[in-house]
Amino acid sequence: MRRPFVAGVAVGSVAALSVISLVLLVTCPSASQHISNTLFSRSSAASEKARATPALLPEESRPMSQAQSAAAKGKISWVLSAGANRGAIEIGALLALMSSGIRPDFLVGTSVGAINAVFFAADPTEKGLRTMAELWQQMHSKEVLPGSLLSRTWRFLTGADSLVEGNAVATYLARHLPAGVRRFGHLKIPVCVTAADLQTEALIRYGDDPAGPLVEALAASAAFPPFWPPVLLRGRQHVDGAFVADIPVATALHEGATTLYVIDLHPGSCTPILHGMTSISIRALEVMLHQQFLQDLRLALSTPGVTLYHLYLGDILPDLPINDFSHTTVLIGEGYQKTKAYLASPRPNRINGNAIVWETVSPPNGSVRSELLH
Fold first, then answer.
1. How confident is the model over 293-317, as pLDDT tens digits?
2. Which in 189, 248, 256, 333 has the greatest CB count within 10 A?
3. Whether residue 226 has a cis bond before it, omega within 30° of 0
């Protein structure tokens, strides 16, 4: 379970970054694309009025969820990270897992990872994944990012809750979810979707209630301020789950997973020196989220009986702009190839990519001593 303080700091960071982003959007229009290339790499979607009823009771007082029931004897979980339009990489990864004979007992996802998890669970077959790939290839940025810089500036000046108006992604989801699939109980495999509560600073999990509506849960999981509005549920505002669990490993452990396939789209280390308050502020948030993820990995690696496979795919087109859907086929293909290569020689309980937990720099010569998460 994530520490409340860490989750609170993550949610509290939304306000500061939102103010910085909004001011720059108004005073410096060229900042709009830069913000898209960085901050937007974390999520996509919105919904102003939702009727989902997530369980808001303390975890210890809540009944066992569908995922926990499925995992009671030790099951396989696929954990899908945030990643916006780079979420297409996950489609290739899931195809590789399926073609290698690996099947999940339940899935956990946040933001675009939650969307991919739900669509897969509605038809958990290679045919279903190929249908998902076609949807991704047909996607256009205006479907989920409507409006212009002028309209977003106007919304800021008039005190709107977000730069993007309305339920664009929620509408897209409602239109493309398979017929008859509208609630968690309609899914063929249990899914746990995460979001963040701005009022309580809590990590919210959707999926416990089979009657819970999918569109609203997904909209909340991917509502990234200031671009999309929070989803109002039971008097509380829910936003993108990436703010408390960019890659929800701890949630999968809480749900009872004993074998985890973690699909990680984090873009990795930043080697050049950064300049500009936007770049520095956004990167600081990315560092915090990544350290939370490493804490989750440490928890998984120290839990007896748990085997973790870290599928690091964050180096696939890491700088792709949020509004660029022209590389979707490449993203899917690269995700498939890299995952197949990993599964041909898997390295369980070994972390790939950047796994530096801390560094000690000794002045004046600047020698560095690091602790790596193994």
1. 888 988 999 999 999 999 999 999 9
2. 248
3. yes
